[in-house]
Amino acid sequence: MQVAGKCPPTREALRRSADRGFDAVELHLPLDVVEEGAETLAARVEASPVSAVSVHTPHVLPGEHGPLRVADALAVELDAYLVVHTQYSNLTHVPELEGAGFEAAHGYENPPGASVRHLTNLVLDQGHGLVLDTAHLFMAHPDYLTEFQMLLDRHGGRIDVVHLTDSTATRDGVPFGEGDIEMATLCRLVKGSFDGAVVLEVMPDHQRNALRRFREA
């Protein structure tokens, strides 16, 4: 298992991630950063003190394939996994997103509130990878721990990245211990059942604490 932080591919953000105790990160790509191009961004990451386990697509409409292809090219350059998710798409857009012609190994993130039935029908049963976001799963299922374990047991071969964060019923990405998820229990479940990349998906100022709590669980 590799535990990663999350940051944009800027020199300062990459350095700060290392200072927080991470040796790997998931890169999220604001549109102004995308304009720098995959080759430039890859060289910057390779010169930084952290590696990239995954690259998160920019938040664009599902038909805006240009920025999606830059994210894909960056993932290929860094030998990283591509997390396909934008705030403007849902799982019914998977065929349109696939039209970008992704070359990197990639998976689709379950959106907030998407049921296991929905993501099974539209992602897993279609042969795609799944990026399993624990907060988004919590928003969908009161028995989120059971559903999480079931997904790992039945579909673990198609789950390479887990996004781990606390959540309330209406707001995800909150600091560990400030939401309604049983975080210690969930962290132990992840450590006992998953062997991929775990991205601690909280805001930068809370990532050091999230890493400590994950290790101590």
Automatic annotation (TrEMBL):
Protein name: Xylose isomerase-like TIM barrel domain-containing protein
Coiled coil regions in record: none
Record organism: Halocalculus aciditolerans
Source lineage: Archaea, Methanobacteriati, Methanobacteriota, Stenosarchaea group, Halobacteria
Boundaries of every Xylose isomerase-like TIM barrel domain copy: 102-206
Residue spans crossing the bilayer: none
InterPro entries xref list: Xyl_isomerase-like_sf, Xyl_isomerase-like_TIM-brl
